[in-house]
Amino acid sequence: MRQIGTLPKGIDPKVFSDYLLTLGMKTRVDERPEGWLLWIYDEDHLARAVEVLQGYLTRPDDPRYQKAVDAAEAIRRREQERDKEFRRNYREVSDLWASPGLRRRPLTIILAAICVVVFVLQESSRRSAPVEGRLRFSTTYVDQEGRRHGNGLNDVLHGEVWRLVTPIFLHFGILHLVFNVWALNSFGTMIEASRGTLRLAALVLVSAVVSNLGQHFYMERLGPGEPQLFGGISGVICALFGYIWIKGLYEPEQRMILHPNNVTVVLLWLALCMTGMMGPIANAAHVVGLMVGVALGVLRF
Are both 2-92 and 101-298 of the same fold? Predict the structure, then answer.
């Protein structure tokens, strides 16, 4: 902020400030014994503001200055409306992250509960693994040489279509479960509270099927016939993340906005998973899920 000059006491500083505002220059006025001290906020406007001030001091009664009063008021009203809209959106997005009640996010709670219940059943029946066997993408069989193989798409093609979705409910370890349920609660709540339960249901269903198929075909390419023991809802979570990310960039009126730092952290996490440093992870499901979410966001779904 720089000083541009002083107005005598007999001249109304508001008229001059309003005129500068219509020219795109914001000012501050301080009262002093000798007059009104004028400041310009943007230093790039300094030379232009000084020039305008000299013209105003020469002819302060010029009608163009008085006409600027109404225009300046209109500019202030628009700024106030934009500020009010920003504060409203900021508050609503914060409320979404503050875990609204069950009625605003029933599907998110149900999905998280299913993941927890399935995990408990997995752990309690680890020896025979009946739960995993029914929810995996495909069952396995043992050949004559005692080697285990996967059935690929055979189970699905013979009517067990639920296997296209149910691997998302399988988790292998408490940390795997806790992290995924936390992320599901965050992203799922934001989408469901803003866009509705049916929209979230469609996102989850489409991303579950496509990401599971993506992981299946990727593993088939690496080792045909190998048992496909992948699971977890992280592919869906990547889709929800991608959807929110795109909506925040191109449709901020939907009130789903991620901080750029959070976007960077998630993308770096996905990249780290691909290095293999985090152990065996269904990276294909992550990538495909992210692509699904981004695509649906771009398509304004």
Answer: no
pTM over 0.70: no
Domain ranges of the chain: 2-92, 101-298
Residue 228: closest CA among 177, 278, 166, 180? 166
Domain 2-92 matching CATH 3.30.70.2350: the answer reads yes
Mind listing the pLDDT tens digit of every residue in the chain (301 residues)?
Answer: 788 888 888 788 888 888 888 888 888 888 888 888 888 888 888 888 888 888 888 888 888 888 888 888 888 888 888 776 665 554 444 444 455 666 788 999 999 999 999 999 888 866 556 778 888 888 877 776 767 777 788 889 989 999 999 999 999 889 999 999 999 999 999 999 999 999 999 999 999 999 999 998 988 887 776 666 788 999 999 999 999 999 988 888 788 888 888 899 899 998 888 887 777 788 899 999 999 999 999 998 8
Report helix, strand or coil for 40. strand
CATH architecture of 101-298: Up-down Bundle (1.20)
- Torsion angle (degrees, nearest 10) of CA 129, 229, 290, 86: 20
DSSP-derived letter for residue 146 is S
